[in-house]
Amino acid sequence: MPSTTQRDASSEVTLRMQNLTKEFRGFTAVRNLSLEIHRGTIHALIGPNGAGKTTVFNLATKFLNPTSGRVFFKGVDITPMQPADVARLGMVRSFQISAVFANLTVLENVRVALQRFRPDGFYFWRSERALDELNDRARALLTEVGLESLAERKAIELSYGRRRALEIATTLALDPELMLLDEPMSGLGQEDIGRITELIRKSAASRTVLMVEHNLSVVADLSDRITVLARGEILADGPYSEVSRDPAVVEAYLGSDHE
Amino acid sequence: MSTTSADPAHAQPASTKSLASFGLPPIVLYAVGLALLVAGPFFVYPLFLAKILCFCLFACAFNLLGSVGLLSFGHAAFFGASAYVAGHALKVWGLPFELGAVIGTAAATFLGVVFGYVAIRRQGLYFAMITLALAQMIYFLALQLPFTHAEDGLTGVPRGRILGLFDLNNLYVLYYTAAVIFVAGYLLIYRITHSTFGQILKAIREKEPRAISLGYRVNDYKLLVFVLSAALAGLAGATKTMVVQLASLTDVHWSTSGDVILMTLLGGSGTMFGPVVGAVVVEMLEFYLADSGLPIQAVIGAIFVVCILLFRRGIVGELSHLLDSKSRGKAG
After folding, report:
1. Alpha-carbon distance A77 to A94, whole Å?
2. Is residue A169 part of a domain?
3. Is residue B275 helix, strand or coil?
4. Residues spanned by the domain of A113
5. A126 to chain B: which residues are within 8 Å by CB?
6. Domain-located, residue A124
7. What pLDDT band is residue B15 in, cutting at 50, 70 and 90?
8. Is pLDDT larger for residue B303 or for residue B175?
9. B8: pLDDT confidence band, cut at 50, 70 and 90?
């Protein structure tokens, strides 16, 4: 689709999902969904449980293949691509359940991400000590998220909030254009929520962020634009202030949670 | 940092690195091991020890898969195929052992590529089952192809001279040749697990989806480590043929695949040295129980069950855990 490609390249659209449908054995998780994520924004995806938010994430990052529809990233049709190649293009996701490399040290976690830019990923004869070259850069990233003093700890020893921070540092190591965060606040205490919110705001200064999040005050605080999903379809899409007043949204989702 | 919620790790004293996390027991243990390796043939029948070393290398090669979290039920295929090919090269083509070993290893490597390509797309038990099914096909071939001599096997394989100089029929030459091959293989495995490549294997084992989301094509990494493991299993098989002058259906039988799993788990699958200990224990048991009239398989099976139930980390794993918690106790 050259027309779409040209449009995306010249416009502000980083990620475009076009008529995406995903069926699982007769159950339609996502139905004919079209969504554009604009460059430089923080875009939140909200909706009740089972609305298809995580499926949308999986479709966008190609961890799942759509039943029909297409996904464009920076104007490139990534529908036929493998998830690792999508990541290489600059779209890096996090996971709902914290995804750190538990038995690697905090420093090694970040180094694994940095190592992707090196050609020695397959050099089974080269000592891992060669990776010490990455330590300075890795420590700088850890400093950004406040984990520098824990660099030598194993990731599994960290508290939940710090694991989230480590995940963000690992993602930032790749300097992705688009960061997808799947419920970054789930399971976090109030203090950690404040820290991670600031971290996301800081990292979004130079990139685009798409996040799934249940905590509406975080969504209100961070996002430029929100999309409300319900039963696999878009219920509303727009700036938070508008969407939150939409009667359909209030009824379907915000309801009693929202004051 | 004071604003973060309570962190349990913070309260702990600085933890001593566990031996298992080093992958390598302390240098002292290695010195002892090396001394035993050198002095061994003066106390135990060298031919028997050389055969044990072949199985040690086989178990270490198998254990290499663990570094990326794969489990193969078909590793006898690589060991056995190389045993046959090397045996054929030595006996029928009259090649020297070095070349026979290279050709056998190459055959195992090729099989590793084929098996890996077919199996790597599947996870966990499915992966293991595909390797088993493919290995059964190799067994069938070994039964049917003329050059393997089916039930008779390849017997009387000549050993020749190592480097064209030293007669391998001298049991000490034979033993030290096997020892050098074992040490070289072990060091290579150590390097692989502690390489820039090995670092990514660890990441994949820890959290595969995350490794993918960082942009790693994980199947390529799994395939490479699988092929390396197959090649080293092949080297072990070729060396075994030269040592015992025989390649037989046992080498490709599924029970040999089972044995190597047993050796690895018994010794400690999370450790570098565990498979070596496991292989020694299993081979010793089989040898010394052979004349006892006891049902060997049942005895080994019982030991295996007890080990899995009581010492899940395996012999080396439990020992290093014990040492580790002792030093932790001192630090606290």
Report:
1. 22
2. no
3. helix
4. 101-157
5. 195-197
6. yes
7. very low
8. B175
9. very low
